[in-house]
Design the sequence.
């Protein structure tokens, strides 16, 4: 409530303190929110390192949004840590997280931290697009232009199999 000012005056410092209390007790949502606030410098001085520690705790508890955000922070770091970004995006994508699926699509499309693979990129973009991610749909359209019809069919088959197996063992 303090973070958003819902039914009370907004106070990011107080929100941060409450999130800290809950996060210290292992609450994944509080760990996530604390990480985001610290990353953005809300109620405190911004610190990517500390933010990533809190996001990692939430991600370790299976929070798909924390996994995705942590991946994005690894990718945006200097230099980019594509191996860690890839690992985080895979965890989020395996839970059906459309942002994670789109991020995997872009890594494969660009060959960032992985071998460039338009078939795998198309598969992840397609899955993200099915989840309502507009950028994933654009990515799918982009890689489609680089692919032969047989590759597109292969990517579509992979996406269907991935969905059928609930995103297990597909990356």
Sequence:
């Amino acid at each position: 409530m303090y973070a958003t000012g819902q039914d009370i005056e907004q106070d990011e410092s107080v929100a941060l303190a409450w999130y800290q209390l809950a996060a210290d007790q292992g609450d994944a949502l509080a760990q996530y929110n604390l990480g985001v606030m610290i990353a953005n410098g809300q109620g405190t001085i911004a610190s990517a390192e500390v933010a990533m520690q809190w996001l990692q705790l939430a991600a370790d508890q299976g929070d798909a949004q924390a996994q995705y955000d942590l991946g994005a922070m690894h990718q945006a770091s200097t230099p980019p840590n594509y191996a860690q970004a890839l690992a985080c995006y895979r965890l989020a994508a395996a839970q059906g997280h459309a942002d994670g699926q789109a991020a995997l699509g872009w890594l494969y499309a660009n060959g960032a931290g992985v071998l460039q693979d338009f078939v795998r990129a198309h598969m992840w973009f397609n899955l993200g697009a099915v989840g309502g991610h507009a950028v994933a749909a654009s990515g799918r359209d982009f890689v489609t232009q680089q692919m032969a019809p047989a590759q597109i069919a292969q990517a579509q088959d992979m996406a269907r199999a991935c969905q059928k197996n609930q995103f297990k063992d597909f990356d």
Q: What stands out?
A: The chain has a mean pLDDT of 91. Residues 155 and 168 are 16 Å apart (CA to CA). The chain has nine helices and no strands. The two ends are 39 Å apart (CA to CA).
